[in-house]
């Protein structure tokens, strides 16, 4: 059996750091569960219960255990958790990994998402030597479009009906960043 992934702590700059999930992060899961969008595109439970929150945190740990990917809490330098960023390794055999991220409403507009994405990108390309990173963003989500582009991703096209979000299939912009573009 392969060893589980070791989720490192990453300095993200800008007053943010990335770390592994803890049960003490349940208030973050609760806050995210109250968002109109986050539970639609993630496995954040809605409605929130403590047992569902614990199960969510345990799923994050399980991603490293099964080698599916790295999932980080985005936290302020004071330790307050404000979001999540993940590096998913489903297509690593083909030289690709994907990123996903969210930040709770109270912490948006403070640079947490782009700072966290930049830290994961630098680590994934430099240390893990992943040839290609990908992410998908709904065209209406201008904040995530800005985050992707500020982190150096290039829009490659529109994938029509690409992903199920809630009860419908939605279009997604495809963004990518190649290792030699860092």
Supply the CATH class of the domain at 10-130.
Answer: Alpha Beta
* Tally of DSSP β-strands: 8
Q: So how many helices?
A: 5
Proportion of residues in β-strands = 25-35%
Roughly how many Å is the radius of gyration? 16 Å
Report on this model:
With 182 residues, the protein is α+β, with helices and mostly antiparallel strands. It has a domain at 10-130: Aminopeptidase (3-Layer(aba) Sandwich). It is 29% helix and 34% strand. The chain has five helices and eight strands; from the N terminus they run E-E-H-H-H-E-E-E-H-E-H-E-E. The protein has helices at residues 26-33, 38-41, 50-65, 112-126, 142-150, and strands at 10-13, 16-19, 69-76, 81-88, 96-103, 132-137, 154-165, 168-178. An eight-stranded mixed β-sheet has the order 1-2-3-4-5-6-8-7, sandwiched between helices. Strand 3 (69-76) and strand 4 (81-88) form a beta hairpin. The longest helix has 16 residues, at 50-65. The protein is globular, with a radius of gyration of 16 Å. The chain starts with 9 loop residues before the first strand and ends with a strand. The model has no long low-confidence stretch (mean pLDDT 94).
